[in-house]
Amino acid sequence: MKSRHGQPSAVPKVGFVSLGCPKATVDSEQILTQLRAEGYEIGSTYEDSDLVIINTCGFIDAAKEESLQTIGEALRENGRVIVTGCLGAKEGVVLENHPEVLAVTGPHALQEVMRAVHQHLPQRHDAFTSLVPPQGIKLTPSHYAYIKISEGCNHRCTFCIIPSMRGDLVSRAPGDVLREAENLVKSGVKELLVVSQDTSAYGVDVRYRTDFWGGRPVKTNLQTLARHLGELGVWVRMHYVYPYPHVDELIPLMAEGKILPYLDIPMQHASPRILKAMKRPADSANMLERIRRWREICPEIAIRSTFIVGFPGETERDFEELLDFLREAEIDRAGCFEYSPVEGAKANALENQIPETVKRDRFELFMETQAEISASRLSRRIGTQTTALIDEFLPDGSALGRSFAESPEIDGVITVSGGIGLRVGDLVQVRIEHADEHDLTATVVSPRN
Ligand code: SF4
Q: Could you tell which of 150, 151, 160 is best to mutate to test the pocket of ligand 1, judged by most ligand atoms within 8 Å of the CB?
């Protein structure tokens, strides 16, 4: 990184000019604190800074004039300027007078200012001085990583208390998500698992606003994010995808090989009566039709879901409807939970709570039915070739891996034999030799990389 005078800057330096009232001062303090926390130095002159932030005031004409003059001065003396604060709320006024500024944000916009700084003056990672690796601290093995794209949820499912703990949906800016993803890929991650409480609602809270990544505009919506993640050259797997209509647009990306042909859709039930009591606006007839269409477009798509049995008021008929749905939809993998009341959930107050023994019987029948479906789906893969990502090794020397159809921890595994010299994180071409209800065995055909 070079300063504007052509000297390499060991540590990026940000100059700061704070104008305006005490509220603006607090904003400035927060930005300065964050800059320091991230390892940026604060420059004391325009000349020794790599970039300058001006926190402006726009309260009266004189303050506005002073702010515009200061921006002009910083552009002349330094050349790289980010504008924030009250005058920044009038982006048009700033750009009309100084079109060459790098970014403009309104007041109290710490995240946006930091994003602009990251974009125009990225922090160099120094293996000796940085406490945290560029990809952050991960609890997963180094070859796959979860990436969270939003927090909170706008639904109010009656069995769930997540919205009361985490609040309504707040989507991360796609530029931030993609930068994190890029760092993960650079650190050697081969598989990105996209998670959130409600992945398909991504962007609805910010009205799908446009952000920037690598100088390109990127809309805050799932299809766009998935497409860009798919360009990073690693596996991208979608979790917690509530089946809104626009989810259909992900399927062509799967058929083109941009993202893995895998969808984790938490359906919870199939009986319209129970779905209504759960406050899940889904429709199982429509769901069947959509799954049929998805498989037409992308025949190999693997569908995973979770269901709840024994929800208050669930009759034998509702439960039969659920089993019929499983058989007809041929869900590849399904997890099942016996309903249990969670403190604070609305469903606790519903009538006709189901006896524990009935819940258990239904759970067992569900698992038996799903095991048959899963075994039948998996048996169709015998003799086919697939790419497996190696996760670990067994004492007998065989490897455990997964293909596009298996997510870590929750789905089955592929036991791979004949892979001399394989390492964790390798992608290998394997032939499926055998399948049972949940897992597969395979032999190596050729290493992929
Ligand atoms: S179950 Fe999922 S979709 Fe429903 S309220 Fe909870 S987090 Fe939201």
A: 160
Residue 411 in tokens: 């789905």
Ligand 1: lining residues by beta carbon, under 6 Å: 153, 155-157, 160, 162-163, 197-198
Strand order in the sheet with 103-104: 41-43, 13-18, 51-56, 81-85, 103-104
pLDDT digit string (tens) for 243-252? 888 999 999 9
Cα of 157 vs centre of ligand 1, distance in Å, is 5
Q: What is the pTM of this model?
A: 0.74
Ligand 1 atom with the shortest distance to the CA of 160 = 6
Written as six digits, the tokens of 261 are: 């042909």
Residues 365 and 337: their CA atoms lie apart, in Å, by: 12
Atom of ligand 1 nearest to the CA of 198: 3
pLDDT digits (tens, 9 = 90+) for 211-238: 988 888 999 999 999 999 999 999 999 9
d(CA 192, CA 171): 18
Distance, in Å, from the CA atom of 334 to the CA atom of 305, rounded to the nearest integer, reads 5
Burial 89-121 (b: 16+ CB within 10 A, else e): beeebbeeebeebbbbbbbbbeebbbbbbebeb
Rounded-to-integer distance, Cα 215 and Cα 158, Å: 43
Q: Which helix (H) or strand (E) holds 440?
A: strand 440-447
